[in-house]
Every structure is written in structure tokens, then in C-alpha cells.
Amino acid sequence: MTSPRIAPFPLSRPRRLRRAPWIRDLVREHELSVRDLIWPLFLIDGVDAEEPVPSMPGVSRLTVDRAVEAARRAADLGIVCMALFPRTDPARKTPGAEEAWNPDNLVNTATRAIKRAVPQMGVMLDVALDPYNSDGHDGIVRDGDVANDETLEALERQALAQAEAGADILGPSDMMDGRIGVIRRALEAHDFQHVAIMSYAAKYASAFYGPFRDAVGAKGALKGDKKTYQMDPGNTDEALREIAADLEEGADMIMVKPGMPYLDVCRRARETFGAPTFAYQVSGEYAMIQAAAANGWLDGDQAMMESLLAFKRAGCDGVLTYFAPRAAQLLEGSA
Ligand code: PBG
How much distance in Å is there from the Cα of 215 to the middle of ligand 1? Predict the structure, then answer.
């Protein structure tokens, strides 16, 4: 028998539970699953073509037929939901954003095609006018301001066209006051009771959306900024008020956006409401990790997985991320 060692030695040794992979696996508190991921995808007109987005290395805009193929591959990887965004032909952008409720616009066409080919795939569509608006704003511009209530009427039309096309989840991302109530009532009145709303409830006026605006071609069009409707980055109590209002108006799920810089908001939202809570790891967050990885400054896969796990730790049920296919490969062990 070895003779007893004499103090001072630590009695509490957290390292005991870190000694080997199996015990780290055993005691891990939070885990990311492929079923936590929503994959945002960009669409373009045309057939059998794609177009890389320069500010989002690894991301391309796809024609509808290729988006269907992508949906098949995503389903094989275990991805359960995709969010579709259009790069609208500039010739179809107008100050009234009428293309937003064209039943045959890119997102509606792609939704029908994906639901036909891969019925088990959830399809989410953004309710906001910016991809269709020649002013680049999420709402209709009158006298230099985004007109709230006039925009609500447009959003209602857009939402109904999207529900008609077969969207499972509508994601109002426009930040107009009262939009969730208007959209919920319209869906109920038109027999779309089953269509869920994931409200972009706490959406901040953020510099991290830059690459997305490139991807949908809204950057050149945008006059000014979105600070009169998106939230001020200094506020968190206000985020809780926005979320409370949206839940009250009929949102089924809520979202915080951007993600990584606003994990505190995710945590407060989850603890205050306990409603299904999502974060959007936005284009700029994706671009930062990809740029650093491309320079060899960090391990891209590891940084990606760590960043996604952070959302689970912050209390989110899931995350919208452009990394979804790559993360799914790693999670499913088919990398
Ligand atoms: C449109 C919308 C935006 C994003 C999602 N929906 C851009 C914006 O508000 O300017 C950003 C997503 C991203 O950056 O990845 N309202």
C-alpha cells in the first residue's frame, strides 16, 4: 500500500471528468444535433446553374432545379428544414414590391418544387419586402420613411402567397409593428391554420447582414439604413418586449438575429418565455469564420461546430446557419 499523501492537494478535481473522450461525452450538458439546423439557401432564375456568392465562400445561389437536388441531399444528411431566399431580377423590383406576392416568384416556385420532390423537408420563407423592393427596404417607402401600416397590407399578401405555395413556416423578418397579428389573422381566415410563424422578433440593425444583401442583390438598392425599424444593438429589455408582443400576436416560435453577438439575448429570451427559441447565425458571422479559415488562422470545422454549440448552450432550440450541410456531415459522421 502506498503511504497516504499529505495535504494540501485539491479534493475537488474537475479534470477527473475530462480525462478521456468517453467521460467527456458522458457528462456533456449540451449537444448539437442535425435536427437543430435550418439551412438558408439562395435562389436565382434559370435552369441547371449556380452562381457563387463572393462574400460567402462556399455558398452559391441555385436555380430551382438545383435547389431541389440540394434539398434531396440535405434530407439525406438529416436536415429537416430549409429557408429560401431569392435573388430577384432587378427588372422585377418596384417601389411597391409587387413581386413579393407573385405566386410564381422564385421562392414560391421553389417551395412547390421542393415540397413535391422532398415532402418531408420543412420549408420556411421570409416575409419582408427587401428582395423585391427597388428601394432595398423591408417595407414600402413613403416620403423617405418606411410606412408601417401600408407595409402590413403588402406583407399580408406576401404571406398568403407563400402559404398557398406550401410554405410550412413563415418568418416575418421585416420588423414592422403589428405584423405578426396581421399575418396570423390572415392565415386563419384563409384556412392556413397549420402554417407556423417563426417571428424574427429580436432583429437588430446589424453590420453582420452585409454579405446577405450581396447574395440577394439588395445592397446596391438600399437607400440609407434600417435603423428606424430594426432594433438598436444597445437594447435587451426592448428585445423582451418585442418577443412578448409577437408571442401575444400569435408567433409559434421566436428568433434572435444576429446570433453570436447576441447570445445574451437568446439566454434572456429562453428564460423569460420558454417558447421555442431560434438564433440566426447570419451571413457576416459565416463570412468571418470562412475568411479566417481560408487564411489558415483557425480551424474552420472546429470553429464552426463550437459556434453552433454556443447557441444550444445559450438556450436555443435550433439555429439557422449557412454551415448546415457541412455541420450535418460532421454530426452524421459522413465527413
Ligand atoms: C430580410 C433579411 C435579412 C436577413 C434575413 N432576412 C437582411 C436584412 O434585414 O437586411 C439577413 C440574413 C443574413 O445576414 O444572413 N429582411
Answer: 10
